[in-house]
Design goal:
Length: 128
């Protein structure tokens, strides 16, 4: 699975893509940047900056399965619905193990989205 995720209107600061990962299990964010991308384990699969991938037969998920086998209530099917998603930026990579994702597009600015998100967090945690 591959999608190019560029195309934001940086002049008017409008046009934000939002990825929501449903039932995420684990994630990584950071290195490598674009200069070190050829050393990235999945580079040979065609990793291109500003792209989004779903990796089949993930070695990361296989590693999590091996860890989970030590759990007394381990079930072989526990990871069946999880996928390995990769989002490659210019200076970093985001990887996530999740059941699925939802993509939304907003015409709002980054500032508007962030202030709305902060308000939601405050309202969600007001009773804590």
């Amino acid at each position: 699975m591959y999608a190019n995720v560029s195309g934001r209107d940086v002049i008017s600061d409008r046009g934000i893509g939002i990825l929501n990962f449903d039932s995420y299990l684990n994630f990584k964010f950071g290195y490598p940047n674009d200069e070190a991308l050829p050393g990235y384990p999945y580079y040979e699969l065609g990793s291109i900056p500003y792209s989004f991938y779903k990796l089949e037969d993930s070695d990361w998920i296989k590693g999590l399965i091996e860890i989970e086998k030590s759990h007394p209530l381990y079930r072989e099917d526990i990871f069946d619905d999880f996928n390995h998603y990769i989002l490659i930026f210019r200076d970093s990579i985001f990887e996530c193990i999740a059941k699925e994702f939802i993509f939304e597009y907003s015409e709002k600015s980054m500032g508007e989205l962030l202030s709305g998100g902060v308000k939601e967090l405050i309202l969600a945690n007001k009773d804590l």
